[in-house]
Amino acid sequence: MNEAVKDIIYVLLWGDLPSTVRGLASCQRIREAHPRARLILLTAPDYEALLKHCPHFSQIETDATATGPAGKLTSKRIKVTKPKYVYDLVGDADARRIRGGLRFSRIKWIDAAPRPMDGVHPVEAAAVALGRSGLGREDYRLGEAPAPDVSWVDYLARTSRMLEPEYFGLNGPFALLAPAGEEVKANLRWPRERWAALAAALLDLGITPAIVGGPSARDVGRFVSENVPNSRDVTGKAKLVQLAGLARRTRFVFGEDTDLIHLLVAAGPPAAALYPDGENPALKAPRGASPVVLLHAPVLAQVTAEEALQAMRVAGGFEESPRAA
User: What Rg do the C-alpha atoms of the chain give, in angstroms?
Assistant: First the structure.
């Protein structure tokens, strides 16, 4: 599918943060297959501030989920643009609505949305879907498909000090700790006392703990910063692109089953993730360039800070330098 001329290609990608991050692996594969094309990302407004920096795309449009007259204009605009292909990485009702608006055009619609499959991680499912469209293989075992990669934030970090660790008061080695927020029931979260114990243990090893997350995680961030001097509470204070930049410079990430951990791990650091018993965590774990150790227990409080530290060691989190270029 390599172009002799600069074709226009639309890529449809939206959803929650894990789906969006995982979809970036497919976007990279599409860019590699169409290196000279003008790739237009059609998405929702939620993660525009992050995705607008992604080098895979030439342009971003954010009205994918618009309804009513505005929704009709989306399909009309695509039709007028005359793309050669539309890669659908979503496959939901909004995508079907857009496809319906293009039904009388000559645009080739490529259904590359991952389908849920028993025993298959969404990253492998997405790679299989792309393979069926002609890009790559159609068979992947667990862990074989290319992982999402947001290392491109390094280029932005060279021009903006807002992505530097020092901007958040982080000098020297540091670790990112990503607790679940208040939207998760307390009995399904790691207790904040455990987070404080882990932060204290890291400081004893010369590593500054930084608690990251959205506003719903502020209770844990505040508790740790008040009880563990020299720790850093970054909850609710950083944008997603800044958190990706921090993840490029961190020694490692430790977090619960949160949306954010998918972005942090995709930045490349080694990680350990904590899951309650239930669905096999290997089938929904975050993916990145480095190892991710999965811990799970019937009651998360059973996992100690010492066990969390050991998981980080196994993942390679105590290496001398971070992954960022």
Answer: 21
Q: What is the pTM of this model?
A: 0.94
Continuous H helices in the chain = 17-33, 48-51, 68-81, 93-101, 122-132, 153-157, 192-204, 218-227, 240-249, 260-266, 305-315
Tokens representing 245 are 């930049």
Residue type, 214: G
Return the CATH architecture of domain 153-315: 3-Layer(aba) Sandwich (3.40)
- For the structural domain made of 8-132, what CATH number should be given? 3.40.50.2000
Question: Residue 31, CB half-sphere, CA atoms under 13 Å: how many?
Answer: 15
Q: Coil, strand, or helix at residue 299?
A: coil
Nearest to 127 by CA among 312, 316, 287, 317: 287
For 104-146, how does the pLDDT look when each residue is reduced to its tens digit (9 = 90+)? 899 999 999 999 889 999 999 999 999 999 998 999 999 999 9
> Which DSSP category does 107 fall into?
P
Tokens linked to 92: 């939901």
Inter-residue contact 203 to 230 (CB < 8 Å):
yes
CB atoms within 10 A of CB 237: 15
